[in-house]
Design brief:
Length: 147
Amino acid sequence: MSDAGDEIQVDEATAVEVTTVAPRAGKMSVEEALQQVLKNALVHDGLARGLRECAKALDKCQAHLCVLVETCTEAEYIKLVEALCAEHKINLIKVGDAKVLGTWAGLCKIDKEGNPRKIVGCSCVVVKDYGVESEGLHVLLDYFKNR
């Protein structure tokens, strides 16, 4: 660096436009709320995926919420999860497709465009830690309270 008094040209600060997404009118659906809660729990390492992990979490009463697929081919699997949820009074919600639940639970690869690839189906997911409070969590809790 020289002491000769060289001046450095600094451009004026450019204005950056920030666009905000307008909030949607009405409440979010239970499915959207479930997706948001599962995403938050995944980020905070609060998900148990698969029968073994879910059964252990349900039996130890570590679970806050259990998500089960309706189209599971094993009847004993459904009986076990439903019985554990009923015994420990854990909220149970059912979804339609195992691939969708696998995507929500993070059992897929995300490509450069942000689309899920190599999706693995999942029959059962247990939320052990919600992570952060969100609108989706409040919608789900209201859903269970009014059911």
